[in-house]
Amino acid sequence: MKRLLLPIIMLAAFSCGNPTRVASPDGSVAIEFSLGENGEPRYAVSFDGKAVIEPSSLGFQAADSSLNLSSGFHLVRSRTSRFSEDWTQPWGENKQIRDRHNELEVRLANECASLVLRFRAFDDGIGLRYEYSVPGADTLVICDELTRFRMASDADTWSIPANFDSYEQEYRTLRLSALDNANTPMTFRTDDGIYGSIHEAALVDFPEMTLRVSDSLTMLAALAPDGPQNLELKAVVPGTFKTPWRTLQLGRKAVDLINSSLILNLNEPCAIADVSWIKPAKYVGVWWGMHLGLNSWGKDHRHGATTESARRYIDFAAANNVDAVLFEGWNDGWTLGWAHHDFDFTRPAPDFDLDAVLAYAREKGVDYIIHHETAGEVAWYEAQLERDLDFAAERGIHALKTGYAGWLLDGHYHHSQYGVRHYAKVAAEAAARQMMVDAHEPIKETGLRRTYPNFMTREGARGMEWNAWSRGNQPSHHEILPFTRLLSGPMDYTPGIFDIEYRSIAGNPDVQVWNNVHSSQCRVNTTLAKQIALWVVLYSPLQMAADLIENYDGHLAFQFFRDFNPDCDASEALQGEIGEYVAIVRRAGDEFFYGAVTNEDARSLEQPLAFLRPGVNYTATIYADGPGADWVSNPYSYEIRQLTLTSADTLSLSLAAGGGVAISFIPE
Ligand code: NOJ
Ligand code: CA
Question: Which ligand is nearest to the CA of 438?
Fold first, then answer.
């Protein structure tokens, strides 16, 4: 976690001739470029001297078949260069980032186009990007990407299915040879023991990349189409265009993938001049009650966001060191069945006095997160976006949660170029008004938070809500997420349900079916200690304690969230195996917060505390699974212990089946 930072950028050419190979600074990762018999560009990747990607073809296909973007190329020239930079971000798992890589730039030309292929070799993986120039073309229609990832060996893989409209899918653990398609990040462990993850970086004005497995060990890039009515159209680009980076993170241990900054390093520097207003926060809100079916967003006696409930949540936040509050259903236009939307983000619901709530929150020193559920009606939302954001900004609101629930955005896939443009537009308009964004039903993160650090967090996987109205997220979901979805960036999972079996609402006649399944048929597949640990493990700079506040009132274990600081300076994944367990520590100032979670298997962990500062005594408060704890039969058993510990100590930790442990370390 501690790094020596040199505040300089060094960029130096070091090639002679026309090189076709580049290795990372420590030599472990190497990329080899070649041209096939028909002038098709190809690349291969090795790690520690072992092949990971066998020579694999590169290119794109334009709708105009006379435009050849994938073969007939000859080498114009190539060169390599070294790059070294240390940069900082206003928040993040790590505020200080080190970028050391070597680049191979290959200039090619054929009868239609010139193409620069830019390969970057980092010690923890690679990035490759295409820069095309098609003379005489104002715009091009792209109908396919031809990038292949021809794996050198079979592998275990962890991924969700490729789906252009939703990432809220269950993870599968499959052999690569048995995989059909996948969304990214697609994580694997090869039979040679190499860990890797394929994803993309800097996804700007382009559709997302998914993967299709063509034969058992070869994955093809498959771009999200525009929509079900326009499956051939993938992207419309100018005659000169750059693609997002295609990325491959590599590691010797599973946790190396989490500790990598490769995706951020492949994004553009911050575009916001003054970032002083961008601040991580903890929040609570009127939210879980709706998913449980206890409250409604709409207009009935179950309406959750009333002036009165808002005051209670603000009081709770002020009394419990919670920074912000969210009230879904604050605005007018919700109907009970979501059959028709007439949302208005400038008109509060009749029983929600927004100005009074804001004044009360201000008086109590609590921030307000405004909610815009668009139901995917993006054109409608964009038409009044500036007015709606002005409305919030004028009232001193600095945080926005958006939602795009339902299928399609005006007939386009959520992950199409249309969607990508929209999410970026909201982030930019919000930044112009000093507003942070938390998007649900988003496009996946590709490191754009480096450029727009106001785009704090997003959903983009099955979050807590699924536990209220489905068979729920299985225990191993939380040991897969950090090695897959969270490699792309923070997630607004909204952990922290203490009433695991919804006992506090059992038999309450107000509880109605929401989203097909009655919450009395559901539960959270967890122990209580695991819910606490997830506040650390599932990183989000806007971190929610998602339960009804009544379930926290007087609960001793809520002290962890009170103490927790979401504004961490540095993070380290300490140990773990994908789908089995993971332990992560985050430092915020002088304090450390540790979380470890396990799948359905109980396990013991030996945890050296070498991450603590040497010579400092810490009060460690340990929130652990209690006697007999087990996610199925005894989820509530927990215990809290306090010890004085130093960096020389090693803790022996016991995690129950489906359990976890959270520890705060406060210097004495
Ligand atoms: C889906 C979001 O993920 C959830 O957080 C929100 O409560 C609903 N949409 C309503 O906006
Ligand atoms: Ca959702």
Answer: 1
Assess whether the previous peptide bond of 185 is cis (omega < 30° from 0). yes
C-alpha 328 – ligand 1 centre gap (Å)? 8
DSSP symbols for 607-659: EE-TTSPTT--EEEEEEEE-TT-BTTTBTT-EEEEEEEE-TT-EEEEEE-TT-
Residue 622 carries which side chain, given as an amino acid letter?
Answer: I
Residue-level pLDDT at 5: 43
* Atom 6, ligand 1: residue with shortest CA distance: 403
Question: How far is 527 from 317, CA to CA, in rounded Å?
Answer: 24
pLDDT at 2 over 90: no
- 465 assigned to active site: yes
- Compute the distance from residue 405 Cα to the ligand 2 centre, in Å: 7
Q: Where are the beta strands (DSSP E) in 255-328?
A: 281-286, 324-327
- The sign of the dihedral angle between the CA atoms of 159, 173, 583, 531 is positive
For residues 436 and 402, the answer to whether their CB atoms sit within 8 Å is no
Q: pTM of the entire structure?
A: 0.97
CA–CA distance, 442 with 209 (Å, rounded to integer): 15
Q: For residue 336, what pLDDT is reported?
A: 61
| Mean predicted lDDT score pLDDT of the chain | 96
Q: Give, in degrees to the nearest 5, the angle at Cα 492 between 490 and 496.
A: 120
Nearest CA to ligand 1 atom 1: 405
> Which pLDDT belongs to residue 342?
84
Task: List pLDDT tens digits, range 579-601.
Answer: 999 999 999 999 999 999 999 99
Q: Which ligand is nearest to the CA of 287?
A: 1
Torsional class of 306: left (φ above 0), alpha (ψ -120 to 50), beta (otherwise):
beta
Compute the distance from residue 310 Cα to the ligand 1 centre, in Å: 18
% helix, strand, coil for the chain, step of 5:
20, 40, 45
Query: In this structure, which residue's CA is closest to atom 5 in ligand 1?
Result: 440
pLDDT at residue 335, rounded to an integer: 79
Residues with beta carbon inside 6 Å of ligand 1? 287, 328, 373, 403, 405, 440, 459, 465
Between the alpha carbon of residue 252 and those of residues 46, 194, 546, the distances in Å are: 13, 6, 36
> Which listed ligand is nearest to 334 at the C-alpha?
1
Nearest one of 199, 198, 197, 150 to 177, comparing CA atoms: 150
Q: How many whole angstroms separate alpha carbon 18 and alpha carbon 107?
A: 10
How far, CA to CA in Å, does 188 sit from each of 194, 251, 357, 413, 488? 8, 10, 48, 27, 15
Out of 54, 465, 479, 572, the active site residue is: 465
Taking the C-alpha atoms of residue 586 and residue 592, their distance in angstroms, rounded to an integer, is 6
Q: How far is ligand 2, taken at its centre, from the CA of residue 492, in Å?
A: 10
**Burial readout 446-482 (b: 16 or more C-beta within 10 A, e: otherwise):** bbbbbbbbbbbbbbbbbbbbbbbbbebbebbbbbbbb
Rounded distance, CA 564 to CA 535, Å?
9
Residues with Cβ < 8 Å from 444, sequence gap 6 or more? 167, 183, 184, 203, 208, 415, 460, 485, 488
- Label residues 419-428 b or e (16+ Cβ within 10 Å = b): bbbbbbebbb
For residue 285 the two structure tokens come to 């809100």
Q: State in Å, rounded, how far the first CA of the chain is from the last one.
A: 21
% residues pLDDT > 70 (the chain): 97
Quick: pLDDT tens for 603-643.
999 999 999 999 999 999 999 999 999 999 999 999 999 99
